[in-house]
What does this fold into?
Amino acid sequence: MGPYQILLIEDEEIIAGFIEHTLAKEDIQVTLMSNAESAWEHLQHKSTRVDAILLDRNLPGMDGLEFLHRLKRDPELHRIPVIMETAASDQESIQQGIDAGAYYYLVKPLQRELLIPIITEAANQYRDYCNLQETLNDNSRALQLLNSAEFTLRTLGEARLLTNALSQLFPDPKKVSTGLLELLVNAVEHGNLNISYEEKTHLLMSRQWHEEIEKRLRDPQYQERLVQVKFRREASRIVLTICDEGDGFDWRPYLEIQPERVFHLHGRGIAMARRISFDTLEYQGCGNCVEATVQLG
It folds into this structure.
Protein backbone atom coordinates (compact mmCIF):
# COMPACT_ATOMS: atom_id res chain seq x y z
CA MET A 1 0.00 0.00 0.00
CA GLY A 2 3.02 2.28 -0.09
CA PRO A 3 4.36 4.69 2.55
CA TYR A 4 2.19 5.67 5.49
CA GLN A 5 0.15 8.83 4.88
CA ILE A 6 -0.04 11.09 7.92
CA LEU A 7 -2.19 14.21 8.26
CA LEU A 8 -0.39 16.67 10.56
CA ILE A 9 -2.51 19.48 12.01
CA GLU A 10 -0.07 21.87 13.68
CA ASP A 11 0.16 25.68 13.67
CA GLU A 12 3.64 26.04 15.20
CA GLU A 13 6.18 26.08 12.36
CA ILE A 14 9.13 24.82 14.42
CA ILE A 15 7.21 21.81 15.73
CA ALA A 16 5.71 21.05 12.32
CA GLY A 17 9.16 21.23 10.72
CA PHE A 18 10.62 18.87 13.32
CA ILE A 19 7.83 16.33 12.76
CA GLU A 20 8.05 16.51 8.96
CA HIS A 21 11.83 16.11 9.01
CA THR A 22 11.67 13.20 11.49
CA LEU A 23 8.99 11.30 9.59
CA ALA A 24 10.58 11.90 6.18
CA LYS A 25 13.64 9.95 7.35
CA GLU A 26 11.33 6.95 7.86
CA ASP A 27 9.67 7.31 4.43
CA ILE A 28 6.44 8.45 6.08
CA GLN A 29 4.60 11.01 3.97
CA VAL A 30 3.14 14.04 5.76
CA THR A 31 0.40 16.43 4.69
CA LEU A 32 0.60 19.57 6.84
CA MET A 33 -2.40 21.72 7.75
CA SER A 34 -2.04 24.74 10.03
CA ASN A 35 -5.66 24.72 11.22
CA ALA A 36 -8.45 22.23 11.81
CA GLU A 37 -10.86 23.81 9.32
CA SER A 38 -8.48 23.22 6.40
CA ALA A 39 -7.76 19.71 7.63
CA TRP A 40 -11.47 18.91 7.74
CA GLU A 41 -11.94 20.13 4.16
CA HIS A 42 -8.96 18.00 3.12
CA LEU A 43 -10.57 14.89 4.62
CA GLN A 44 -13.80 15.42 2.71
CA HIS A 45 -12.13 14.49 -0.58
CA LYS A 46 -12.90 10.82 -1.15
CA SER A 47 -9.56 10.25 -2.91
CA THR A 48 -7.65 11.33 0.20
CA ARG A 49 -5.92 8.47 2.02
CA VAL A 50 -4.92 9.03 5.63
CA ASP A 51 -3.47 6.30 7.85
CA ALA A 52 -3.26 8.41 11.03
CA ILE A 53 -3.75 11.99 12.19
CA LEU A 54 -1.29 13.89 14.36
CA LEU A 55 -3.33 16.67 15.97
CA ASP A 56 -2.31 19.66 18.08
CA ARG A 57 -4.70 20.10 20.99
CA ASN A 58 -4.48 23.93 21.01
CA LEU A 59 -5.27 25.30 17.56
CA PRO A 60 -6.64 28.67 16.42
CA GLY A 61 -10.32 28.57 15.51
CA MET A 62 -11.58 25.01 15.86
CA ASP A 63 -9.39 23.46 18.55
CA GLY A 64 -8.07 19.91 18.54
CA LEU A 65 -10.71 18.50 20.85
CA GLU A 66 -13.56 19.93 18.77
CA PHE A 67 -11.97 18.49 15.62
CA LEU A 68 -11.65 15.08 17.30
CA HIS A 69 -15.33 15.14 18.32
CA ARG A 70 -16.33 15.97 14.75
CA LEU A 71 -14.13 13.23 13.29
CA LYS A 72 -15.51 10.56 15.61
CA ARG A 73 -19.07 11.44 14.63
CA ASP A 74 -18.32 10.93 10.93
CA PRO A 75 -19.24 7.37 9.79
CA GLU A 76 -16.58 7.43 7.05
CA LEU A 77 -13.69 8.84 9.09
CA HIS A 78 -14.24 7.85 12.71
CA ARG A 79 -11.83 4.87 12.62
CA ILE A 80 -8.76 6.92 11.65
CA PRO A 81 -6.47 6.93 14.71
CA VAL A 82 -5.81 10.39 16.16
CA ILE A 83 -2.61 11.08 18.09
CA MET A 84 -2.95 14.29 20.07
CA GLU A 85 -0.10 16.64 20.89
CA THR A 86 -0.49 18.65 24.05
CA ALA A 87 1.54 20.75 26.43
CA ALA A 88 -0.91 19.87 29.21
CA SER A 89 -0.33 16.52 30.87
CA ASP A 90 -2.99 16.94 33.60
CA GLN A 91 -5.40 14.04 34.10
CA GLU A 92 -8.52 16.07 33.25
CA SER A 93 -7.21 17.08 29.81
CA ILE A 94 -6.06 13.54 29.09
CA GLN A 95 -9.42 12.09 30.16
CA GLN A 96 -11.25 14.49 27.84
CA GLY A 97 -9.17 13.25 24.93
CA ILE A 98 -9.70 9.59 25.87
CA ASP A 99 -13.46 10.10 26.12
CA ALA A 100 -13.46 11.82 22.73
CA GLY A 101 -11.63 8.87 21.16
CA ALA A 102 -7.94 9.85 21.04
CA TYR A 103 -5.71 6.90 20.16
CA TYR A 104 -2.67 8.30 21.98
CA TYR A 105 -1.25 11.42 23.62
CA LEU A 106 2.17 12.97 23.00
CA VAL A 107 3.37 15.62 25.44
CA LYS A 108 5.47 18.48 24.11
CA PRO A 109 8.40 18.73 23.63
CA LEU A 110 8.02 15.74 21.32
CA GLN A 111 10.56 12.92 21.46
CA ARG A 112 11.68 11.23 18.25
CA GLU A 113 12.06 7.81 19.93
CA LEU A 114 8.33 7.89 20.79
CA LEU A 115 7.03 9.64 17.70
CA ILE A 116 8.08 7.01 15.15
CA PRO A 117 6.83 3.81 16.87
CA ILE A 118 3.56 5.44 17.93
CA ILE A 119 2.71 6.63 14.44
CA THR A 120 3.84 3.34 12.90
CA GLU A 121 1.71 1.26 15.29
CA ALA A 122 -1.36 3.47 14.82
CA ALA A 123 -1.04 3.36 11.03
CA ASN A 124 -0.46 -0.41 11.08
CA GLN A 125 -3.60 -1.01 13.11
CA TYR A 126 -5.68 1.23 10.84
CA ARG A 127 -4.43 -0.54 7.71
CA ASP A 128 -5.29 -3.88 9.32
CA TYR A 129 -8.80 -2.56 9.95
CA CYS A 130 -9.13 -1.31 6.34
CA ASN A 131 -7.91 -4.63 4.95
CA LEU A 132 -10.49 -6.46 7.04
CA GLN A 133 -13.30 -4.26 5.78
CA GLU A 134 -12.33 -4.88 2.16
CA THR A 135 -12.75 -8.63 2.65
CA LEU A 136 -16.17 -8.40 4.30
CA ASN A 137 -19.05 -8.63 1.85
CA ASP A 138 -22.71 -9.54 1.51
CA ASN A 139 -22.13 -12.73 -0.45
CA SER A 140 -21.85 -15.01 2.57
CA ARG A 141 -25.46 -15.10 3.78
CA ALA A 142 -25.33 -18.88 3.92
CA LEU A 143 -22.98 -18.52 6.90
CA GLN A 144 -25.88 -17.01 8.82
CA LEU A 145 -27.33 -20.54 8.97
CA LEU A 146 -24.37 -21.74 11.03
CA ASN A 147 -25.37 -22.28 14.68
CA SER A 148 -22.15 -23.62 16.19
CA ALA A 149 -18.54 -24.16 15.20
CA GLU A 150 -15.06 -24.67 16.66
CA PHE A 151 -11.78 -23.40 15.25
CA THR A 152 -8.09 -23.56 16.19
CA LEU A 153 -5.35 -21.18 15.13
CA ARG A 154 -1.68 -20.62 15.85
CA THR A 155 -0.40 -17.53 14.00
CA LEU A 156 -1.37 -13.89 13.56
CA GLY A 157 -2.06 -14.56 9.88
CA GLU A 158 -4.53 -17.27 10.85
CA ALA A 159 -6.08 -14.85 13.36
CA ARG A 160 -6.76 -12.40 10.53
CA LEU A 161 -8.22 -15.12 8.29
CA LEU A 162 -10.55 -16.33 11.03
CA THR A 163 -11.58 -12.75 11.83
CA ASN A 164 -12.62 -12.28 8.20
CA ALA A 165 -14.79 -15.41 8.28
CA LEU A 166 -16.25 -15.17 11.79
CA SER A 167 -17.17 -11.48 11.50
CA GLN A 168 -19.60 -12.33 8.75
CA LEU A 169 -21.63 -14.48 11.15
CA PHE A 170 -22.62 -11.36 13.11
CA PRO A 171 -25.34 -8.81 12.28
CA ASP A 172 -22.73 -6.03 11.90
CA PRO A 173 -19.49 -7.60 10.59
CA LYS A 174 -17.52 -4.36 10.43
CA LYS A 175 -18.34 -3.50 14.03
CA VAL A 176 -17.27 -6.90 15.33
CA SER A 177 -14.16 -7.40 13.21
CA THR A 178 -11.91 -4.87 14.96
CA GLY A 179 -12.54 -6.16 18.48
CA LEU A 180 -12.44 -9.79 17.41
CA LEU A 181 -9.02 -9.37 15.82
CA GLU A 182 -7.73 -7.68 18.99
CA LEU A 183 -8.88 -10.61 21.16
CA LEU A 184 -7.36 -13.20 18.82
CA VAL A 185 -4.06 -11.31 18.58
CA ASN A 186 -3.93 -11.05 22.39
CA ALA A 187 -4.51 -14.80 22.67
CA VAL A 188 -1.60 -15.50 20.31
CA GLU A 189 1.01 -12.98 21.41
CA HIS A 190 0.30 -12.48 25.12
CA GLY A 191 -1.25 -15.89 25.77
CA ASN A 192 0.46 -18.63 23.78
CA LEU A 193 3.71 -16.80 23.01
CA ASN A 194 4.03 -15.37 26.53
CA ILE A 195 4.99 -11.85 25.44
CA SER A 196 4.42 -9.64 28.47
CA TYR A 197 3.02 -6.11 28.39
CA GLU A 198 6.45 -4.67 29.16
CA GLU A 199 8.14 -6.85 26.53
CA LYS A 200 5.73 -5.72 23.84
CA THR A 201 6.41 -2.09 24.75
CA HIS A 202 10.15 -2.66 24.30
CA LEU A 203 9.65 -4.60 21.06
CA LEU A 204 7.44 -1.88 19.57
CA MET A 205 9.90 0.83 20.58
CA SER A 206 12.77 -1.05 18.93
CA ARG A 207 10.55 -2.14 16.01
CA GLN A 208 11.34 -5.80 16.59
CA TRP A 209 7.82 -6.99 17.42
CA HIS A 210 7.16 -8.89 14.19
CA GLU A 211 10.58 -10.57 14.29
CA GLU A 212 10.01 -11.71 17.89
CA ILE A 213 6.57 -13.11 17.02
CA GLU A 214 8.07 -15.22 14.22
CA LYS A 215 10.96 -16.32 16.44
CA ARG A 216 8.63 -17.56 19.19
CA LEU A 217 6.34 -19.31 16.73
CA ARG A 218 9.37 -21.43 15.78
CA ASP A 219 10.41 -22.00 19.40
CA PRO A 220 9.67 -25.60 20.56
CA GLN A 221 8.39 -24.16 23.84
CA TYR A 222 5.52 -22.39 22.07
CA GLN A 223 5.14 -23.81 18.57
CA GLU A 224 2.54 -26.45 19.50
CA ARG A 225 0.28 -24.05 21.39
CA LEU A 226 -3.12 -23.32 19.84
CA VAL A 227 -5.90 -20.82 20.35
CA GLN A 228 -9.33 -22.45 20.49
CA VAL A 229 -12.34 -20.45 19.32
CA LYS A 230 -15.95 -21.56 19.83
CA PHE A 231 -18.93 -19.95 18.11
CA ARG A 232 -22.50 -20.49 19.32
CA ARG A 233 -25.71 -18.88 18.08
CA GLU A 234 -28.58 -18.77 20.58
CA ALA A 235 -32.10 -17.43 20.21
CA SER A 236 -31.23 -13.94 21.47
CA ARG A 237 -27.46 -13.67 21.17
CA ILE A 238 -24.21 -14.92 19.64
CA VAL A 239 -21.58 -16.22 22.05
CA LEU A 240 -17.89 -16.37 21.18
CA THR A 241 -15.37 -18.07 23.47
CA ILE A 242 -11.62 -17.66 22.90
CA CYS A 243 -9.12 -19.70 24.95
CA ASP A 244 -5.33 -19.82 24.73
CA GLU A 245 -2.82 -22.17 26.35
CA GLY A 246 -0.94 -19.49 28.27
CA ASP A 247 -0.71 -18.85 31.99
CA GLY A 248 -3.39 -16.16 32.01
CA PHE A 249 -3.15 -12.56 33.26
CA ASP A 250 -4.97 -9.99 35.39
CA TRP A 251 -7.45 -8.66 32.84
CA ARG A 252 -9.26 -6.20 35.10
CA PRO A 253 -7.03 -3.14 34.47
CA TYR A 254 -7.54 -3.49 30.71
CA LEU A 255 -11.34 -3.42 30.58
CA GLU A 256 -11.27 0.39 30.44
CA ILE A 257 -8.79 2.80 28.85
CA GLN A 258 -6.98 4.19 31.87
CA PRO A 259 -5.44 7.72 31.82
CA GLU A 260 -2.13 6.39 33.16
CA ARG A 261 -1.81 4.10 30.11
CA VAL A 262 -2.68 6.68 27.49
CA PHE A 263 1.04 7.35 27.00
CA HIS A 264 1.73 3.65 26.33
CA LEU A 265 2.19 2.25 22.84
CA HIS A 266 -0.46 -0.44 23.27
CA GLY A 267 -2.91 -1.87 25.81
CA ARG A 268 -6.19 -0.56 24.36
CA GLY A 269 -7.41 -3.62 22.47
CA ILE A 270 -9.52 -5.23 25.18
CA ALA A 271 -11.17 -1.95 26.15
CA MET A 272 -11.94 -1.14 22.51
CA ALA A 273 -13.39 -4.61 21.93
CA ARG A 274 -15.61 -4.17 25.00
CA ARG A 275 -16.63 -0.62 24.13
CA ILE A 276 -17.16 -0.91 20.37
CA SER A 277 -17.47 -4.51 19.16
CA PHE A 278 -19.31 -6.58 21.76
CA ASP A 279 -22.26 -6.13 24.11
CA THR A 280 -20.53 -8.06 26.89
CA LEU A 281 -16.93 -9.15 27.41
CA GLU A 282 -16.03 -11.39 30.35
CA TYR A 283 -12.73 -13.06 31.19
CA GLN A 284 -12.85 -16.40 32.98
CA GLY A 285 -10.60 -18.31 35.31
CA CYS A 286 -6.98 -17.13 35.23
CA GLY A 287 -7.64 -14.92 32.20
CA ASN A 288 -6.73 -17.30 29.39
CA CYS A 289 -10.40 -17.57 28.29
CA VAL A 290 -12.70 -14.73 27.30
CA GLU A 291 -16.40 -14.86 26.41
CA ALA A 292 -17.79 -12.15 24.13
CA THR A 293 -21.43 -11.77 23.22
CA VAL A 294 -23.53 -9.82 20.73
CA GLN A 295 -27.26 -9.47 21.26
CA LEU A 296 -29.54 -10.35 18.34
CA GLY A 297 -32.56 -8.29 17.43
In short: The chain is about 40% helix and 20% strand. The mean pLDDT is 87. The chain has two domains: 5-132, 138-295.
